[in-house]
Predict the structure.
Amino acid sequence: MFKGLPLEIPGSGIKPTTDKVRLAVMNIIQNMVSGSRFLDLYCGSGAIGIEALSNGAAFACFVEDSKKNYMFLKRNLDAIVQDSTKYRYIKHNVLALGDLFSKSPIESFDIIFADPFYRDAEFHFEELYKIAVDLLKPRGTFILEHGNKNKFSDYPFFTEEKRYGDTSLSIFKKQGQTDL
């Protein structure tokens, strides 16, 4: 739907997901993205969430804390996605997202993708994991992009890890229950 449309990205302060990894994420979610609610954490320019919308997601929520990246995100969404009811963008610290959603009716998502800086994935994974699992619908999927030196296979719902050069994707599929 949005293929070929250029995204604005800042020159620094962002670690963009490579095309190879972005394609891998889309391949992982291809059978579940249509009609889904998608959450893009540490979204930067919004490329992954916009691609999810392009592939049939019903709604995408984008969370970015950097003021500079947030401005690029807003411009990209406003320019590319014509239907503003299909997305929401939030300027907020991902690790405090539970606090934000606790003040309003809790939202839940079928697919959550997180692409923090690799050091943040290493040092804040437990907080991020709890937030993701709390916001994930039963049978939903959480995908974390991280560096190869980190391993998260000991956590509940871990399904597999896929490696792409220095990058790994850890995939967690929540079972039917709503609690850990």
